[in-house]
């Protein structure tokens, strides 16, 4: 969050803005809000129709902010908490009105255009002038009423927008036709059909554009719809239904199969499977048992669960995901600065070109009608709305698609930084590996590995050490029931001493074996290979009349299944991968070899990792750092792009531009791939938005485009830009 002074932190404010139609509107609203005392960091998004800003405590109250927006010619209100059902109903009603307006305009305009089509076929279906006027007038002042309203607001604020251009252009064509009709001789061509067609086509473009813009927020609406409105909670020995917003930490929810989970929590009774796909991107149901976490918005597929609430309302994982996606969609990419500078001067420049066109034609000896029509075409074809939609629509679709796959993008700057990455630096523990010890191999001196694991696993029943717990879990997974434990003693720093049935077993370090007089040659021979791989070793022996070696168990931090494919995918994209870890060189070499990484550094402290990232950047590399721990935070913050795992610490996530909701390394190349596609779409959109105007305005000024064609081109330019951005919705993470 931005900070104005050391003792007066800035507060973030979000406003819903109504009435914006183009990039010029965005610029005007931003300037109006920036002039309010105490306001900074103003960002207005045309696609989402929102303004986000920071204000000092005590400065720029809501009334002043709203008044500033209204003085600029628009409407504003505080952004309310999302209510998917109500918002969708309002959107459907607005869409219905848009299409009704267009339908009325089309019904009245079509008879005006039919004579032109007949003329091309050699027929004369010319309508009487008064009938043309009767058909065109409701279109001009009824269907086009909103253009006049918005144009008047812009003119009153001494600025311009797309509506002003449409209103001026269509009014000039309508006024010229009315003048010719009212002349005593009544001779001359009428342009009522051109004025009506411009209004109707722009209305069609507005309806299509609104529909397309709603599609850009599809992923966000899907996330919002995940939160159930009510939850069943235990109260006084029974169950009652409570509004989800009334849940508090400590409440106990009761979940039946098919119900969505209203809050984060832990299962305290029952078992089943939860579908978390829309929250984490995990396609398969996740098994849930007592002690397991559940996430708000996920679906309880099977089994009755009792869940103790840990976080509710705005503190849930789902709420944080939605807030992050909204923040990313409201942010501006660095490339947007160029668009903002162009749009600020766009309408005045177009008005000047139209005036120059009119004067130029008159000076060249052309008739007044021809000069006016050329100037009208210039006004109508100019399209600042395409410029305003080019960047935010691509960002909104990309961040939504990423969220659906389990990748959260903090802001547009992270998206733009990601597309240039050529080096990915991985942390090891918890990133390329599971981050917890797991049994790798069981090496008995004699007998079967299963029997040795069952015996040593049983000896760990009283242990709280991570290695001991890993052995006990491994024994249970192979189906061995723990044997009865008659005696247990933990030996801190060494291992355990246990009596199982009639057998006295010790398991732990080599030093423990030495102290107990266990012969070591056989154990050392078994331990040589796993020790060279950097694995953790547990020696086991049985004590009695003579100490007898039993075997060696090797444990390690298991490499994630997706790690090697992720590194291979990065290599195919021309991206170099490297490994940084605080672990030993033997462990680092083993993991690097397993995943296909050639470059690694071991034994690093947090500051060493940050220094290595800085060295790579100074060498001209564009670096992404992938990590999950507090010790990774300096490197994550120092990289061009930080990518954190949500399974890690909040500190790591705060220092990163992207967060992976699943600990899946394959999401790293997937996220970089999406970023490249998104930035490519932004560039394509900006090219077409500029091309429409750079090519269209000179053609209109030269008289090679009539107002109807100009109006159609203007209307569909913004639609094509949004449609191009929507192609990103087809992206799927591998």
Question: Which CATH architecture of the domain at 417-433 and 560-669?
Answer: 3-Layer(aba) Sandwich
CATH topology of the domain at 417-433 and 560-669: Rossmann fold
CATH class of the domain at 417-433 and 560-669: Alpha Beta
Please estimate the helix content: 40-55%
Find the CATH superfamily of the domain at 417-433 and 560-669: HAD superfamily/HAD-like
| SS element count, helices | 26
Q: How many whole angstroms does the radius of gyration measure?
A: 34 Å
Say how many strands there are: 26
> Roughly how many Å apart are the termini?
34 Å
Mean pLDDT: 82
Tell me what the structure shows.
The chain is of the alpha+beta class and 734 residues long. Among the domains are: 10-80, Alpha-Beta Plaits; 248-311, Calcium-transporting ATPase, cytoplasmic transduction domain A; 417-433 and 560-669, 3-Layer(aba) Sandwich (Rossmann fold), CATH 3.40.50.1000; 435-558, Calcium-transporting ATPase, cytoplasmic domain N. Helices cover 51% and strands 20% of the residues. The strands form six sheets. It has a seven-stranded mixed β-sheet with strand order 14-26-25-24-15-22-23, sandwiched between helices. The protein has a six-stranded antiparallel β-sheet with strand order 16-21-20-19-18-17, with helices on both faces. The chain has a four-stranded antiparallel β-sheet with strand order 2-3-1-4, with helices on one face. β24, α23 and β25 (641-645) form a beta-alpha-beta unit. α3 packs antiparallel against α4 (129-143) and α7 (192-216) packs parallel to α26 (707-726).
